[in-house]
Every structure is written in structure tokens, then in C-alpha cells.
Amino acid sequence: MRHDLDHHEGQRVSRRRLIAGIGSVGLAGLLAACGRDSGGTVTTSTGETVSPQATASTSADLTALFAEAGTCTLTASTTQGPYYFDADKIRSDIREDREGTRLRVAIRVQDSEQCGPLANAVVEIWHCDAEGLYSGAEAQSSGAGGAPGGGTPPSGAPGGTPPSGGPAGGTPPSGAPGGGAAPGGGSEGSAADLTPTDDKRYLRGAQVTNSDGIVEFTTIWPGWYRGRTTHIHAMVHVDNNRVLTTQMMFDEALNTKVYAAAPYSAHTGRDTFNDNDTIYADSMLMKVVADGDGYLGVLNFSVDSDQDGS
């Protein structure tokens, strides 16, 4: 199954440049109603011309789902993993040519102190495809080309043998997110941004929160790789600051259902689930419901926007 992209989306616009332009152009103006393209463009203070992007509205169904998807308790931060970089993709549909079960991801960003919506925050998400590969790092995430941490993957399976425990082989403190194994056997404790080794950018993108603090992405259900449960990475920026780096997880019954169908069913040997993943926390579990031919997953992010520790 191949989904056509909105060709007005996905221009290579630096997320950092857009953050810098928020104060002068009001980036909420870049965002159109969910699923619609106005066809117009906006010029930022840096002189870049970008198309309006999609964002979610606070419809009754989304509002009800968000009420069941977390509170204003500060969202737990965790490792960004070894495969994060600024993909320069401001867009809502991040699928490109990746096949898989359609997944809408709606995220509401709230200020942890005010427990209210946080507008004009930049939200990035990135995750692997149905085979466990990351764009910009296909060689590393397949276990080829000098994967972090080394390790030889089994035939046909992405990723090498993961190290035990947390970053650098350590064991994360009890009850605290951390550790985990990266594709290719690398540690997900790596804090350095990746220098991409290929020009692919699928399953990566950024959006700017609307006045309700909401962004929405269209993607596919993420695949898996050895040493980690199914997850999506997320990062929130306020001004030029990274105020949250976290991950989103899925109910295992749904993972099992999705993975029984193509293209996921061709990738066998899954070894890590929510109950034995070193990063998983209940607060990272998305509220997921059926949505046409796919699913809708929602989660609240409560962030310390002024970074004062509360």
C-alpha cells in the first residue's frame, strides 16, 4: 500500500530557522486546518518561503481522547537515541514511500506549571520503518556500515546484538526510564546528534503547535528492532531550547495485531516487549483507537517550558 504525499508539504526548511522566526511571523500562521492545504505560502523572517501545514483541531473526539491520555504531570524525559538529527522537514505527513498501517499521531503540549496549552512549540517525531530502519541512518540501523556498538545482526534482521542494561552497558536506576539498546547494538544513551549518512528523510518531521497546543502527524505504525519495544521518539522545542525529549509506546495487543499483517509480518524474531524494555513507562503509552483503515494515537506532553525545574 503506497500513500500519495501532499506535494506542498515537506520542503527542506530548517527547524532551527523556523524557531528563530516564530516571534516575528507567528508560525501558527503556517498551519492550516487538519488534512487541508490552503495552497498559500508564508515567508519567514529568514526569507524562506514555506507552505501552510496541517495541525489538529480540538474536535470533541480528540478532546475526549486527550482527557484519557495523560495529565499535566511533568512528562518523563528519556534518551533521544543515536539516530536523531534536525531533518529540516516541516510537515504533517511523514510517510513518503514507507509502507505500513496508517497511524495518525496527535500530541497536545501543555505547560507543566499552568496546565494549559502551549502554542508555537515545535514538536519533532521520528521512528523506524516496518523493517526497523531509520532514515538518514539506514546503514547503521541495519547493522551494516559500522553500526554503533558493533555486533553482527542475524540474517535478515535489522540490528546487532544489543548490549545489556542501559547506556554504556550500565543498568538504569529502578523505575527510571533509560538505557535500552539501539539498532546495530548501539546504546540509546547516546546524546550526540547524528550526522546523517544517507539522504533519506522518511518517518521524520516537525510541526508547530496551534493555539490549543496540538500538532498532528500522519505516519505508519512503527516497526521494531532488537533490544527495544515498539516506540516513536519525540522532542519539543520552545524558542531555541529543547524542553523535552521522550518516547511514545503502544499497547502490546495492538502491536501483535498490526505485526501479523504485511509488511510487518516479514520481519520476525521480535525479542523485546513493553514488559522487558528498559525505557518503557506507563506514562508513555498512547491512547489508541481505530481510525478508518488505520489508527489514531494521542498523548499529552507536559513540559517545563521555562526550564525552572517545575
From TrEMBL:
Composition-biased stretches (Gly residues): 143-159, 176-188
User: Which keywords, in A-to-Z order, does the entry hold?
Assistant: Dioxygenase, Oxidoreductase
Q: Where is this region: Disordered?
A: 138-197
Q: Which GO terms describe its molecular function?
A: ferric iron binding; oxidoreductase activity, acting on single donors with incorporation of molecular oxygen, incorporation of two atoms of oxygen
| Signal peptide from the UniProt entry | none
TM region(s), chain numbering: none
InterPro entries named among the record's database cross-references = Intradiol_dOase_core
Please state what the protein is called: Protocatechuate dioxygenase
